[in-house]
Batch of 4 targets.
Target 1
Amino acid sequence: MGQRKAPKDGDRKVGRRALLIGGAVAAAGSAVLARDELARLWWRVPGVEKPRKEGEVDYTGARWVAASDANWRRADRPDDYGIDMVIIHVTQGSFASAVKVFQDPEHGAAAHYIVRKDGHVTQMIRELDVAYHAGNRDYNERSVGIEHEGFVERSQDLTDEMYEASARLTARICARYDIPVDREHIIGHVEVPGTDHTDPGEHWDWDRYMKLVRAARTAKAEA
C-alpha cells in the first residue's frame, strides 16, 4: 500500500500524550486548550468511539451501500487522523461492477463514494473511517476518496451530471474539514506517491471541475 509517513497527530499513545498536554496546559494556564485537547484525546482511548447509526450517510442525498469491512479500517477521523485532501478516481468499469468489488472482501480496496454518470451518489464507507483507495497508507488516512463511473479512455463517460454532482460533494467535504479548494488538496489518484494508477486520466477536465467546486462552495457559504 505504499510507504507510510509519520501520522500528522504524532504520538498516539494516549497516556503519555495526555500527560504532556496536561502539563503544558497547566503551565500555560489555558482551560480552553485543555478542554479542546482532552476532547480530542477521549476518542483515542481504546474501546471509545463516536456514536454511529447503521446506514447513516455523511452527504445529504447519498444512498448508503456498505463496502466489505475488509476494504477499510475503523477510525474516528478527524480526531485521530486529520482530513486535508480529496482524491478523485475513475472506476474503469460500470457503477454496478464498482459496488460489487467494493463489497468483495478479497478485493482489498474501496472508496468512500461512487458518483454515477447520471449524478447519483452512493456512499460505501463513512468519512470517519479510513478507506483503502489511494494505495498509500498516509494518503488513505488523510483523505476522502471519490470514484466516478466510467473508463479513463472514454471522454463521453464524464458527463455534465457527474461533474456537477461530484463538485457539490467535494465542496461539501472541503467545507466540513476546512480543506482549501485548490489542486494541492483536491488531487487525482495518479498524483498519489507510489501508485501505478492513471486515473482520472487525460480526459478529466480539472479546470472545469475546480470551477464547479469553487462555485458550489461559494453557494453553500452564502445559503
Note: Residues 1-29 have pLDDT under 50 and may be disordered.
Target 2
Amino acid sequence: MPQSWSMSWLTVPTPLPSGPMEIAVTPLGVASAGYVRREGGTPPCTDEPKIRAVTERIGAYLAGRTRELGLPIDWSLSSGPHRAVLETLWREVPYGRTITYGELAARSGVFEDITEPGLAARTVGQMMAANPVPLLVPCHRVVAADGIGGFGGGRVGIEVKRWLLTLEGVLEPTLDWDGPL
C-alpha cells in the first residue's frame, strides 16, 4: 500500500456470533475486515459517507435483504498467488454456493505444478485463514471435501462460518439460529 494512503477503521455492529466487525477503509475501498475486535492505536474513520455505506451494506447483507455487499475492495494487502486465489473465489463463487479447498486450488490455476496430494488444498486453507477481507471475499464459502472445514477464530470462527452458510441457504437453520429467515 502506498505510504501516502492510510487505513482508518470503523466498527460495524453485526448479529454474528463473534459480535461487531472491524473494517479498515482506504481511498480505494475496504482493505481489511475482521471478526475480532482490534485494540487501540488504529485511527478511526471519520468519513461519514464511507461509514454509512459500509455499515448499511454489511447490515443489509447480514439481515438477508441483499445478496451482494457492493463495496469496493482495496486488494493491496494481498498479492501473488494469494491474491489470485482470493480473486478467483470473489469472482466465481456466488451467494449460496460453496467450493472445496481443492476445487478452488484447481480453478485458480495457481497450483498447476504441485503434485503432492492435498498440498494445494491445504495451502488454500492457509490462504483463506489469511484473507484480509473476509465476508467481502467470502472465504466462508470454501469448505472441506468432507464437511464444513475450518474458519479463523476457533469455535467462534466456526460458528460465524455456520451462521453465514445458514444465512445463504447452504445449511439448514438450527433451532438456536438467530438470523433472518
Note: DSSP finds five helices and five strands in the chain.
Target 3
Amino acid sequence: MNGKKLLIWMGGSVAACAAAVIFYERSPPNTFNPLCTYNLAYRLTVTLEIGGKQYTSEAVNQLTRPAHWVGGINGRGCPQLRGTALSFRLADNRLILLTTWICNTAFSTFGTIDRDGDGVGYREAMRVHRKVNIAAKCVGIRRSYTYNAGGPFDGFLINDADKPATWRGFFFHKSNVATLNADEDVRIISAVAEADDAAPEDQLDTVAPAVLKTRFLSPISDTPDYLLPERKVEPQFVASKDPLSDADRLRLQTEAKEEARALGLIH
C-alpha cells in the first residue's frame, strides 16, 4: 500500500469512527445498552388553564425495561432519569406537576401488530410520529376512567417553585377539570402525545430545579416523588402535605363508586 492509499484508508477509517461516535452520542439512552432497552418513547405536550391564563409544558418519556436476557435478575429495572414529569410554573410562582404516564386507552393506540401477527410493535409509531389526543382518551393524563380511583394523585400543587414548603395532591374529573382549592380550578386545555424516538427530557432543571432538592412529607407514600426522576439530590427544602389532598381523594372515591354503580359495575 503506497502512501497515498494509506492516507485515504486512514482518513476513511477516522471519518467512519467519528460518524459512529456521533451516531452513538446522539442516539437515545439505552439504544445500545446490553442491560436495558425501551419499548416506546413519546413527546407529551400539555396546556393547562388556571385563572384565565394558559401554561404549557413538554417532556419526552422513554418507557424503559430490562433486556430479556437479564429480566429475571434485574429486579430494580432500568432507571428513568428524565421525562417523567411535566412542570408548570404559575404566574404567582406556584408549581403544578403532572405525570407523563398516559392511560392504557391512549397507550394502546401506539401499538401495531408485528409481521408475525402476534406482537405489539412501537417502532412504526415512532417512525411515522403517530399522535394521540390524550385529553380525549384519558382522565387527567394517566387514568382511562373516572371510576378507576385507585393509585396515586393525578397531579400536585406546590406552594412555591423556588422554596417548596407545602404541597397537595389533586384528581381530575372526567371533564379534565381539577379543584385546586375552594374557589380555583385547573383545566386541561390540550394534551397530545407524539411517538418520537428521541432522548428523554423535561423542563424541571429550568422551570423548578428546587423540587429536585425537596423532601416531600406524607404519612403515606403518595407524594410528588413518585413522578420525579431519579436524579433527585440531597434535600435542601422540606414540604408538608396540605390536608386538602385527603379531602380530594375521598371526593373522587365517592364519585367513582357512584359512577361504577350507575354503570352496573358494583351494587
Note: The longest strand covers residues 36-50.
Target 4
Amino acid sequence: MTIRVMLVDDQALLRTGFRMVLAAQPDMEVVAEAGDGVQALEVLRGTQVDVILMDVRMPHLDGVETTRRICEGGQKEGAPKVLILTTFDLDEYAFSALKAGASGFMLKDVPPAELLGAIRAVRSGDAVVAPSTTRRLLDRFTPMLPAASAESERPELARLTDREREVLLLVAQGLSNGEIAARLVLSEATVKTHVGRILTKLGLRDRVQAVVLAYETGLVRAGGTAGA
C-alpha cells in the first residue's frame, strides 16, 4: 500500500530535496506540500495523507501548533501521523510537538535511508523512530515541566495491570519492543499486545505520548530511571 506523504516546510529547496528522495520509493508518494501551518491545515481539508513531515519553525503558524490542531482528534481512524523535522538535536520545539501529538522527530540532515525507515515506522504505528533520542529529548526538557503531580490525577493509570505498568516503564526508558521482550522474557508479539492495551487504556495516540505521560506523572525521572 502506498504511503501518502505531505511535506510542510517554509524552505522550498528542502521540500524539493525530500520530494526527490520519496519519489524514488515504490511505496511512497508525495501528495501535498505546504510552506507554513496555515496552508497545511487548509490543504489537509481536501487531501488524504498518511504521514506529515513537519518543520517546527515556520511563519504564520509554527509546526507545534499545527501538530496540535492535527492531532487534537486523538486516535481518530485515518488521522495522519506527524513526524517532526528539526534543525538541531534536543530542540525544545520538538519536545513541545511531541506533547502536542507528534509520533516522533528526526534531524533534517538525517541520512535518506533513516528518513524512509522512519516514515514507514510511523505509518505502521510503531511511532517511536529513535527511542533513545526521544528519551534524551525528554530528559533535557522534563525539568521545564510543572512539578510532577500525584498519579491520582491520572486515575486511568490504575487501570493498568502490573505487567502493563512494567512495560510502560521500560517503554519510557527508551527500550524497543525487542529489548523489552528480552528483559521480561516475553515474545515480541506479546510486548506489542501489551503496548497496544496500554495506549488504549490511557487514551494515547502512540508510544511517544506514553513516554511523555510517564515523565509528566513521575513514573520515570529524568535519566530514564523509575520514579518512586
Note: DSSP finds ten helices and seven strands in the chain.
